[in-house]
Amino acid sequence: MIRVCIAGVTGWVGQPLAAAVEAAEDLELVAAVARRARGESLGRLTISGSVEDALAVPSDVFVDYTSAVAVKDNVLAAVRTGRHAVVGSSGLTDDDLRELDEAARSAKVGVLAVGNFAITAALLQRFAIEAARHLPSWEILDSAYAGKMDAPSGTARELAWRLSEVRAPEVEVPVEKTVGDVAARGATVNQSRIHSMRLPGYTIGLEIRFGQQDERLTLSYDGGPGATPYVAGTLLAIRRVHEFVGVVRGMDRLL
Ligand SMILES: NC(=O)C1=CN([C@@H]2O[C@H](COP(=O)(O)OP(=O)(O)OC[C@H]3O[C@@H](n4cnc5c(N)ncnc54)[C@H](OP(=O)(O)O)[C@@H]3O)[C@@H](O)[C@H]2O)C=CC1
Ligand SMILES: O=C(O)C1=N[C@H](C(=O)O)C[C@H](O)C1
């Protein structure tokens, strides 16, 4: 039986994830965190108001679906107390992930950090890696609901990181030589350009556009209004994270 602690248990993903953990025969939800629901009952357990309190309960895997602001400290606290961690929350930078990797290696635990647990997003990433082997120029468009605090999205950051392992995209006019406002060319993440839009009416989406002379290729991912696609991937990560030591990024290591 794998004992699970979920931070963000009342959230859009945390809620259905907690139900799925409780329904699984090999998993047991032993602790949960959400500040405003502190003290409330969830099945047989009482929701903690802080990660520190939740980590006082023995558990094997810590799952974070809180926010870009809280995730780094939460996961550091979890690995330092010997928990494997599954990171759903977005917002972690490469430097944050390096710091988590050091902490996880010294505690000899695994951390699976996945920008997007949906299979369709994982497939986009795989197809984009293949396309980047053949097409040298691309830019990324990240779209999300108006209230999403972090930018670029975790999905976009992870894609840029994976593409950097293939090559750096070719640009004709170096971005710093832009005439006008350099910010109009988007953010540089691992050498890819990412343009983030935050708009009412949107859920989450990612597009990568490749271009070369006289032809274009666009790969596009759209997340819908429900959190179901993230739950299955997160359950898989909970079951497999003990196989790793240090930080592992991306769903493909699990597929
Ligand atoms: N990797 C992936 O596939 C996915 C990633 N995400 C990412 O996951 C994160 C959460 O998303 P979502 O479920 O929509 O968020 P919600 O805002 O719906 O839920 C956040 C949850 O975390 C709790 N929370 C927030 N801040 C803290 C804190 N400092 N300490 C403890 N608990 C906290 C909230 O309760 P309270 O405020 O009461 O504490 C709530 O339970 C985001 O970063 C999002 O981008 C989302 C979907 C998929
Ligand atoms: O904020 C969200 O909701 C989501 N964020 C993730 C991200 O930052 O990439 C992905 C997920 O589809 C939903």
TrEMBL record:
Keywords: Amino-acid biosynthesis, Diaminopimelate biosynthesis, Lysine biosynthesis, NAD, NADP, Oxidoreductase. Residues 121-254 form the Dihydrodipicolinate reductase C-terminal domain. Signal peptide: none annotated. It is an enzyme of class 1 (oxidoreductase). Pathway: Amino-acid biosynthesis; L-lysine biosynthesis via DAP pathway; (S)-tetrahydrodipicolinate from L-aspartate: step 4/4. SUPFAM superfamilies: Glyceraldehyde-3-phosphate dehydrogenase-like, C-terminal domain, NAD(P)-binding Rossmann-fold domains. Its EC number is 1.17.1.8. Gene3D superfamilies: Dihydrodipicolinate Reductase, domain 2, NAD(P)-binding Rossmann-like Domain. GO terms for cellular component: cytosol. One of its GO terms (biological process) is lysine biosynthetic process via diaminopimelate. Residues 2-117 form the Dihydrodipicolinate reductase N-terminal domain. GO terms for molecular function: 4-hydroxy-tetrahydrodipicolinate reductase. It catalyses: (S)-2,3,4,5-tetrahydrodipicolinate + NAD(+) + H2O = (2S,4S)-4-hydroxy-2,3,4,5-tetrahydrodipicolinate + NADH + H(+); (S)-2,3,4,5-tetrahydrodipicolinate + NADP(+) + H2O = (2S,4S)-4-hydroxy-2,3,4,5-tetrahydrodipicolinate + NADPH + H(+). Belongs to the DapB family. This is 4-hydroxy-tetrahydrodipicolinate reductase.
